[in-house]
Amino acid sequence: MSLVTPDIGLIFWMVLVFGLLFFILAKVGLPTVTNMVEKRTDGIRKALRDAEVAEEKVRGLAREQEELIEKTRAEQLKMLQEASAEKERIIAEAKVQAGEEASKILSAARDQIALERDNAVRDIRRQVADLSVAVAEKVLRCELDRQGGQQAYAEKLADELTDRDLK
Asked: What is the pLDDT of residues 75-131, one digit of tens each?
């Protein structure tokens, strides 16, 4: 058996199956398809009639719409004029409030700067005093560590105290 030339038996069975399938489709499928096409045609005709009625309604609505648009334009113009006046009033109020807020903020900033400056000066003075005490302590330790330094320092303090008492 060759792939290019089919056998007579194969051709017979293929024709028989095709004929049977065609017969079943013609009896069952074709009437169903025909009914569906007729229903679709009726639906399209009805839709066309409905579209004509809707078109008439749309023409009437278009006239009403034009009238409403004219009324709306007049009302819109009035609202825009009112909104413009309100906008100007709000802007003026906002400018006044912004000026007041800016003054408050500047005043608060000046106060804060002065406070920070005073705190910084106090902190620097405290640090200078601490450093001075530390330096004096180191100098005294060096002086007292030398031999005879303690004796000399004690005598010097005694002389200063007696001089003060004498005055």
From this structure: 999 999 999 999 999 999 999 999 999 999 999 999 999 999 999 999 999 999 888
pTM of the model: 0.34
Single out the residue of 132, 156, 133 nearest to residue 144, CA to CA: 156
Answer whether residue 81 is part of any domain: yes
Question: Could you give phi then psi for residue 146, rounded to 5 degrees?
Answer: -65, 150
- For residue 47, the enclosing domain spans 17-161
Q: In this structure, is residue 124 part of a structural domain?
A: yes
Is residue 131 within 8 Å of 139, Cβ to Cβ? no
User: Could you tell me if residue 167 is inside a domain?
Assistant: no
Rounded CA-CA distance 120/127 in Å is: 10
| Residue 146 and residue 153 in contact, taking contact as beta carbons nearer than 8 Å | no
State pLDDT tens for residues 124-155. Answer: 999 998 888 888 877 777 766 666 666 777 77
10-69 residue pLDDT tens: 889 999 999 999 999 889 888 888 899 999 999 999 999 999 999 999 999 999 999 999
Number of domains comprising the chain: 1
- Non-local CB neighbours of 140 within 8 Å, separated by 6+ positions: 153
Domain assignment present for residue 79? The answer is yes
CB 143 within 8 A of CB 149: yes
